[in-house]
Q: What sequence folds into this?
């Protein structure tokens, strides 16, 4: 029992054999050097301990000389045990004979008496050594398969950890951008508020100043009038000879003192106050639109895209639900003056996209030729246009066995990890950004910056050739 425990301590957990050139990791777990290096081969700069899953940065391996010495001691003890009891075998519990044989039919070790018994007669029986060798080879095969599976799991785990770090890093970056943008917005609004309030404070002071100046003038005028009124009242009650004395002077003073309405508040100041009263309704409407736009920016809607029968090229056929697109057996009748594509096997979506963020999914083929994207509303359908940004079309597609961005003349190829079966077209109208994703894995395929035209309307765009077909997902 003690010897078996010793053997277990010097057995590599990867190959399940005695350690060969053992190394120890930072987590203090040991493995054969060849086993751990093979396990880490497909991984990046860091590896994971197969037992505790701790990340070992730099793949540091230190020779475990003490363990190597124990391995040699174990080998020597094993040799001595075999020499002392070369015939030591397990004993048959039924016949108390050594189990030198192995029954392949029942898959159990048996003794020579069992071999001759009725229970194992005509069974496929071989020596234990031969059976052990066969099963060792079988176990080795399964071990190799399991190790490969483990390596795949480790690789996927490592990729998942890397992807999580990338996602967390991107989320943190976007968080900081959002904080910065709101900080800038607050600073801008604070400055605007400060500017408007400063103007209102100035107007307030001007009104008070003009009021005080006007009150002073009115008070002066009132004092003069009161003095003249008192003088005339006194004059009125004088005897006739005294009343007529200097009557001409007092009458002239009364005419000269005729009141003239003073312009206390200049028109420029009144216009300024009117401007203040006009700002608030405009500000309220702007803030209402801003709230709506901000709420729209937060939400992403799935656009219910259907194909437009009017712009459909005459060589194309739409499905009954207007979500599928194939080539026609023959050209359809083309209406004079029609808005359909005349020279390209293209079609637009039925409704335009002119606000917020939206997306739609398209099932695509790994064969044939096709393209999906968006088009400006004023694309010249009747001309033999070359699809691309200059023509007001932004798209990606597949033709000649390769996935490409529809940007002539080079049509740059896309870097893909796998061929997409479903493509998500994602339009951020406010930011004028268009992105394409593998809808099943969320892998980014390509991005475009669209035209800066303020009044631009965009339509989903589709193009097929040869035996291809496309279908919008419901």
A:
């Amino acid at each position: 029992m003690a010897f078996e425990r010793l053997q277990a301590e010097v057995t590599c957990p990867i190959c399940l054999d005695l350690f060969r050139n053992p190394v120890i990791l930072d987590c203090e777990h040991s493995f054969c050097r060849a086993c751990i290096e093979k396990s880490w081969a497909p991984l990046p700069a860091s590896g994971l301990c197969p037992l505790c899953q701790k990340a070992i940065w730099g793949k540091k391996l230190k020779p475990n000389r003490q363990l190597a010495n124990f391995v040699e001691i174990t080998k020597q003890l094993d040799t001595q045990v075999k020499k002392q009891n070369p015939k030591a075998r397990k004993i048959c519990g039924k016949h108390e004979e050594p189990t030198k044989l192995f029954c392949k039919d029942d898959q159990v070790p048996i003794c020579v008496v069992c071999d001759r018994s009725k229970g194992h007669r005509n069974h496929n029986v071989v020596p234990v050594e031969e059976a052990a060798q066969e099963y060792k080879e079988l176990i080795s095969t399964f071990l190799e398969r399991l190790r490969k599976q483990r390596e795949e799991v480790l690789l996927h785990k490592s990729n998942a950890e890397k992807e999580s770090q990338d996602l967390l890093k991107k989320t943190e970056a976007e968080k900081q951008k959002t904080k910065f943008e709101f900080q800038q917005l607050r600073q801008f609004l604070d400055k605007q508020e400060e500017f408007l309030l400063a103007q209102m404070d100035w107007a307030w002071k001007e009104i008070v100043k003009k009021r005080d100046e006007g009150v002073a003038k009115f008070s002066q005028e009132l004092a003069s009038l009161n003095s003249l009124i008192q003088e005339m009242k006194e004059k009125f009650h004088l005897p006739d000879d005294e009343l007529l004395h200097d009557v001409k002077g007092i009458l002239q003073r009364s005419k000269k003192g005729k009141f003239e309405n003073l312009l206390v508040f200049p028109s420029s100041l009144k216009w300024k106050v009117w401007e203040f009263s006009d700002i608030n309704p405009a500000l309220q409407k702007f803030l209402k639109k801003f709230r709506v736009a901000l709420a729209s920016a937060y939400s992403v809607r799935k656009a219910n895209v259907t194909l437009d029968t009017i712009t459909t090229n005459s060589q194309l056929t739409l499905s009954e639900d207007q979500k599928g697109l194939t080539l026609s057996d023959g050209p359809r009748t083309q209406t004079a003056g029609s808005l359909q594509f005349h020279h390209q096997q293209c079609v637009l979506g039925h409704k335009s996209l002119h606000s917020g963020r939206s997306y739609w999914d398209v099932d695509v083929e790994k064969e044939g030729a096709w393209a999906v994207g968006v088009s400006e509303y004023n694309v010249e359908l009747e001309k033999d246009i070359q699809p691309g940004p200059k023509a007001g079309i932004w798209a990606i597609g597949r033709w000649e066995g390769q996935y490409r961005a529809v940007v002539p003349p080079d049509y740059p190829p896309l870097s893909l990890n796998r061929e997409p079966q479903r493509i998500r077209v994602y339009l951020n109208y406010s930011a004028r950004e268009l992105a394409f994703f593998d809808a099943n894995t969320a892998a980014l395929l390509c991005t475009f910056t669209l035209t800066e035209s303020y009044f631009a309307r965009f339509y989903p765009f589709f193009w097929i050739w040869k035996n291809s077909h496309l279908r919008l997902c419901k």
Observations:
- DSSP finds eight helices and 21 strands in the chain.
- Residues 1-87 form a domain with the Herpes Virus-1 fold (CATH 3.30.40.10).
- Confidence is low (pLDDT under 50) at residues 333-338.
